[in-house]
Write a structure and sequence with these properties.
With 51 residues, the protein is mainly α. It has three helices and no strands. The chain is elongated, with a radius of gyration of 12 Å.
Length: 51
């Protein structure tokens, strides 16, 4: 299960990287911060063994 989560985290990170390259500042300000915060929560849970 953790390998699947790690793969998902990697894919989300890659998506975020691409979005930063291809978005306007208004898009970046509206949705990406929430996605990044959620990703950070997921990574934190993975590292602490909550998942």
């Amino acid at each position: 299960m953790n390998k699947e989560i790690e793969k998902t985290v990697t894919e989300i990170c890659n998506w975020i990287r691409e979005e930063f390259k291809n978005t306007s500042s208004s898009q970046t300000e509206s949705i990406l911060p929430e996605i990044i915060n959620s990703l950070a929560d997921l990574i934190r849970a993975l590292k602490t063994g909550e998942l």
